[in-house]
Design a protein that fits this description.
disordered N terminus; about 75% helix; single chain; mainly alpha; 13 helices; globular; Growth Hormone, Chain: A
Length: about 425
Amino acid sequence: MTASPVIRKSGPPGDTPRLGARFVLSFGFGYFGLWLGFLTPVMLVLQIRAEEIAPDSKSSTLSLVLGVGAVFGLLANPVAGRLSDRCTWRLGMRRPILLAGALLGFAGLLLVAVAGGVPMLVIGWSLAQIGCNAVLAALMALMPDHVPQGARGRVSGLLGVAQALAATAGATVGGALSEVSTAAAVLVPGSVMVVAVTVMCLTLRDRVLPAAERTPLNWGDLMRSFTFSPRRHPDFAWAWLSRFAIFMAISAVLNYQLFYLTDQLGLVEGHATRIIPLGVMVQTVVVVAGSAVFGPLSDRTGRRKVFVIAAAGVAAAGLLVLALATALPIYFAGMVLIGLGQGIYFAVDMALVTDVLPDRERDAAKDLGVINVANLLPQSLAPAMAPVFLTIGFGTLSSEPGSNYLMLFAVGALFAVLSAVCIAPIRGVR
């Protein structure tokens, strides 16, 4: 490998002949930092803060915070991508969005840490969503900017490993710090996020867009940041639907894990906060293994669809195991299956998505921002829908009212199956 990737200093991105180790490592580190800062509140801190602020309505408070925040994240991601695609800053197209987003995200996390009521908690998490999603939009644009098509499965696998490690670190560090200080449990990961993104920006040989090549931007263009034509780009549409469905499935576990352990498995909260890092660690081991094996295998075989379909099926099986769990060993078995499905899915699907972008040369960040809407919309819809299934009175394994996790996770499994079904019609990728 060369010391750094070969990158065009202007003009549209194209397949680079070789991929540099420095870029790959800094890309992975920046991605790790982003997800550490973002996932730690989602997995643990927001649940603790909801119970601290509104103990009698913790589930509905959590749903409100997650839902409103996700709406702002959904709006921010494509807009940040559109602005990044048209940025003519002499130091690069992606750097300003990365740096500004990381700082805004940290400011939001600071408000989450000090919030004394539900409104401040909502505002803090909404700002964090805006900042983190701006970073995500610019990060994802680096894939078509810098990574040749034949290496995208490998790099996507690395990003899957980085996200899994961030989840493990977030659950472990967040769980340990939360016993001392809830504020530290959110601000320490947030600080790492800012440092990681800054380091990546310092080492990045960013693409530069000459002012003469920038297309005009008006309100109509900004509104079109959220749209694409399914008729003209059906492969992209099916990929979007598959992503949406798999994130609907995963959100069931990610957002309600603490309450699931206490209400269905009967653990006390202190025990549950120690079990979550173990569950995430078990999940991470298989995510890393799945990503490391199947990302490169996808590159070597030139196939994407079969891996993504199989991965969604494995994740569905894991959700069904969790739905029926009544003891910790079964819970860990479900987390293993979900982790394996996630590891394979995200290692290969990001490469598949990059291969079917409608306009990789001019609107890569914008189109990837539209894909990220599929990641974000479930963060709003899933918390809104979850209370409906949690309050169903039949088929529950919990004695606590409003805790029908069997039904919630079974619906999640159906979404995972739908994710697999949506991959089959894609024609532009094998």
